[in-house]
Amino acid sequence: MAVIEVEGLVKRYGSRNVVDGVSFHVEEGEIYGIVGPNGAGKTTIVESVEGLRHPDGGTIRVLGLDPIKDRYEITERVGTQLQESRLQDRIRVGEVLDLYASFYRNPADWRSLLDRLGLEGKEDEKYATLSGGQKQRLSVALALVGSPEIAILDELTTGLDPQARRATWDTIEQIRESWVTVVLVTHFMEEAERLCDRTMVVKEGRIVAIDTPGGLVQRLGSEQRLRFRPSEPLDDTVLTALPEVVAVEHNGPQVVITGTGNVIQAVTALLTQRQVIAEELRIEQATLEDAYLALTGQGGASNETGAEGR
Amino acid sequence: MAVTMRITRTEGRLFLRDPLPVFFGLVFPALLLLALGLFFPGFKDPMEELNGARYIDVYAPITLGLGVATLGLVTLPPILGSYRQFGILRRLRTTPVHPRRLLLAQMAVHGAVSVVASVAAIVVAVVGFDLPVPQRPLWFVASYLLSVASIFAIGLLIGALARTTTTGSAVGMGIYFPMLFFGGVWIARGIMPDGLRTVSDFTPLGSAVQAMEDSWLGSAPSFTNLAVMAVYAVVVGFLAVRLFRWE
């Protein structure tokens, strides 16, 4: 069952369409990722779903409700962690949770929420004394304290160190177990890969792909990459003449060859024939990061070369 | 209503955890009056230029007005600015509780602190320096409430528009000091040149101090003073509510 249904969402600022005809469904109980470069419209999309923005076109149903007309009901049933929001420095963890719990008709037990989020024993600490990761987990706790059916988490781990980021991911996996639908806005591919059942990739207000993380990688084809330092200079045209080779790039003394199929054999055979040794040879499979860069057209010169090769 | 009470309690606790506003908003008016009465020569002597009143008599309502202005213009705007800057208002918008209640709570906390600070200053004046208890109590309460309403409205308008703590603070201070001047903090209204006193009558603090002085010492406040405060409260308050930015 779809808990969020968005059809043809349009949002304009001035004459610019920040969101331009976006349609997607989020199923109950899944962790749904929204990824894309800065300014792609991710936050505008989720804020429209939350009812914080009035769309200029399209329809949105959340739990069968209209986020603008049924605003109150949405706030009861959808928990939100907003990008870049903080709390009062001198407020205590227990105080703020107790207060926010009183806003909802079916509040969760905030003490057990603290335990689940790894903040046990912190209720008397002031916000200012918490670490970055603890602040984010408190923010998640506030999004969950009303026992929501959907939790929308925007840029949850931005600015956290890798360790805190991982701890926060564990938290999200915990939420999944309690069968809450999670919408996760992020620009970390690793995060989407680790957590999301499905991910939508947005670019310039439009959806460029919706798929599982694995599916997104597969869209790149079975692309592989060879990276090595040739013992002798190599002419690019010899390499690009091979049918398996898609692109050749240079990274200092390194040659980076992207290709499909039996590109590894083809290249090594060519090197042997020319008596060139491939020093420091590495072979890489495409990752979600690559899929993302390919889909959003980021990655500058290297991608342009790639497009030419195709 | 119960939720607004809970928010007010929490905001009240937060206010009391910040030493600077507690000192300047809560303690300072009484302390200033005490220092003036104890250490300033001639403050307790009847003065010809004040028509026989003592300086302490006219400074008692001035310290009350000063306290209201400190809370309304120095403490309140940066708090509202920070709540916008930190996204606290935005976060509240995603809950079933409208962020309006946080504003109400802040006004209530500042109002309560002002009442305590004013009562403390009145006690110092009456017990320490032989001022009478306010002689026209109803007029006095009305004058005090209008002072709070008109000055807090200005603070709310600054807070309505300030994007950050710093802007809230800077604009509040920029209005606070001229306001104190017209309120008679440096030159009591009784010895102001006529022209200056007329200007002072049209500022909320000038009118507030005069109305509180009159009703404290026994006469009804002038219609002008009350009307000036009422107009500020209604017009500026309306603008603040209309222009308030939630994010």
Write the layout of secondary structure elements.
The complex is a heterodimer of chains A (310) and B (247).
Chain A: E1 2-13, E2 16-27, E3 31-35, H1 42-50, E4 57-62, H2 71-77, E5 78-81, H3 93-101, H4 110-116, H5 132-144, E6 150-154, H6 162-177, E7 181-186, H7 189-195, E8 198-203, E9 206-211, H8 213-218, E10 224-230, H9 236-240, E11 245-251, E12 254-259, H10 263-274, E13 278-285, H11 288-296, H12 300-309
Parallel strand pairs in A: 3-7, 3-8, 5-6, 6-7
Antiparallel strand pairs in A: 1-2, 1-4, 8-9, 10-12, 10-13, 11-12
Helix pairs in contact in A: 5-6
Chain B: H1 2-16, H2 19-39, H3 55-85, H4 88-93, H5 100-129, H6 137-161, H7 165-183, H8 194-201, H9 204-217, H10 223-243
Helix pairs in contact in B: 1-5, 2-3, 2-5, 3-5, 3-6, 3-7, 3-9, 6-9, 6-10, 7-9, 8-9, 9-10
Helix content of chain B: over 70%
Average pLDDT confidence of chain B is: 92
Q: What Rg of chain A, in angstroms, do the CA atoms define?
A: 24 Å
Q: Which class do the helix and strand fractions of chain A yield?
A: alpha/beta
Q: Helix fraction of chain A? A: 25-40%
Largest sheet of chain B: none
The structural class of chain B is mainly alpha
Average pLDDT taken over every residue of chain A = 86
Between the first and last Cα atoms of chain A, what is the distance in angstroms? 40 Å
Describe what you observe in this structure:
The complex is a heterodimer of chains A (310) and B (247). Chain A has 310 residues and is of the alpha/beta class. Chain A folds into two domains: 2-211, P-loop containing nucleotide triphosphate hydrolases (Rossmann fold, 3-Layer(aba) Sandwich), CATH 3.40.50.300; 224-309, Alpha-Beta Plaits, CATH 3.30.70. Helices cover 35% and strands 29% of the residues of chain A. Chain A has twelve helices and 13 strands. In chain A, the strands form three sheets. Chain A has a six-stranded mixed β-sheet with strand order 5-6-7-3-8-9, sandwiched between helices. In chain A, a hairpin with a 2-residue loop joins strand 1 and strand 2. In chain A, helix 5 packs parallel to helix 6 (162-177). Chain A is elongated, with a radius of gyration of 24 Å. With 247 residues, chain B is mostly helical. Chain B has one domain. Chain B contains ten helices and no strands. Chain B has helices at residues 2-16, 19-39, 55-85, 88-93, 100-129, 137-161, 165-183, 194-201, 204-217, 223-243. In chain B, helix 2 (19-39) packs parallel to helix 5. The model of chain B has no long low-confidence stretch (mean pLDDT 92). The chains are: A alpha/beta (310), B mainly alpha (247). Chains A and B meet through helix 2, strand 5 and helix 3 of A and helix 1 and helix 4 of B.
